[in-house]
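Wed. Picked up where I left off yesterday with G domain-containing protein. The coffee machine is broken again, so keeping this brief.
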Amino acid sequence: MPRRNDTRGNAAIEEFDFQEGDALILLLGPSGVGKSTFINNYSGQELATVTHAYSTCTRSIKPIPAPPFESNPMIGGNRVVLIDTPGFFGGDMNDAATLKQIANVLRPQGGRPRELAGIIYLHDMTQKRLVRETQMSLSLFEEVCGTGSAHKAILVKTQWSRTPDTSALRRGADLNGTFFKQMIDAGAQCVDIKDGYTERHVVQHIVKRHYGASVAARLLVQLQQELESGLCIPQTAAGKVLKRCLLELLLYTDRSQLAQISATRAAIEELAWPPSPLQKIKAYFKPILAFLWLRRRRLDSSTEPTKIA
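Structure written out below (tokens, as returned):
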């Protein structure tokens, strides 16, 4: 059975104290690309869990407050919140649940959309060719952001060697002219983490631009706009792309990978539209179970014995 990450992930989001004025930055990218490492390198602290195993270390969405490292008076006392996400198409994760968690951060059920300061998409430059899962992750990122909000996005090429060889530099230039071209043409920026340009520079650029922008320029990203219009996840462009990618992956997955096949099928079922009667029942009870789980956690924490010094 695949590990479930939807209920716990949503509860973690509900527990986080989002504040008015937060500079929210969403990190997206394939599994193992270094999203958690990016957060730790920016903050100079071990705020996100990093492993070097083959399986993804981030199992659910995690908002992580970090110092702004910025003296710009426009920022004031506001926080920078980096939102760590699991990589899509990375194994036994339910990708539909992950997309729903992202949607729940961007637009809480029954609440107003949360404005993003920016979206960072990370790409691993040690890849000598773009594998299927990497191309799918990029397609999904494009539909979450949308070309109309591309100015909020930064495409970040990471994991360069200390002295990049000619072929790596050529691959970087090729990316800008091919797979990254649509978003760059629409207004996204593309940067390299090398030669003294660090994660801190990326975040500072986003924060300065966000607090310096007029209210009119602060657009919602495409997924938020679609949810605001009344669409549900399977009806959104991101939901449709995710379902198409999962169906394609199912064709190529080795039959021995039972956990991955099970997770993929479960995600495809969740993205079905219109929903089946069983899905409607699950959807009805899911928030109730999440509420009960959160209430139990709070009760457990309140009944812990007080330590006497």
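Quick read: Residues 1-8 have pLDDT under 50 and may be disordered.
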